[in-house]
Amino acid sequence: VHRKSLSVWGEEAIRALDDCICSKVFFGVDGIDLEHGITTSTIEEARLTRRMMAAASQTIVLADSSKFGQRGFGRIGSLEDIDVIVTEAEVSDQMASALEEAGVDVIVVK
Question: Is the full-model pTM beyond 0.85?
Fold first, then answer.
């Protein structure tokens, strides 16, 4: 069990998702970058997140405004791989344009 997130990673966690299907997956990221897409801190977490995304009909990223323009070490996927981003602040015009072009809906909650 990963101490910080209290989650399980690795091959066993990935195999556990092999037979799962769901309508929506919600997850956080360490970075949302125009060039590198969505990223997290480790390759293992990125692999597990990709598997969760493959099992879901809709991918929803939960990210506070500090994540925009940042990138982590493990690449989860491109902006086109996600359907919705939920955040607490408006994004920059450049980011908003790229997200719109990628087909990503942005929901700002206050």
Answer: yes
Say if residues 74 and 40 touch (Cβ distance below 8 Å).
yes
The tokens for 81 are 């791989």
Task: Say how far apart CA 30 and CA 17 lie, in whole Å.
Answer: 22
Closest to 53 measured CA to CA, from 13, 84, 81: 81
Strands 84-87 and 105-108, how do they pair?
Answer: parallel
| Contact criterion met (CB below 8 Å) for 23 and 57 | yes
Strands (E), the chain: 22-28, 31-33, 37-40, 56-62, 74-77, 84-87, 105-108
Q: What is the pLDDT of residue 40?
A: 97
pLDDT, one tens digit per residue, over 67-110 is: 999 999 999 999 999 999 999 999 999 999 999 999 999 999 98
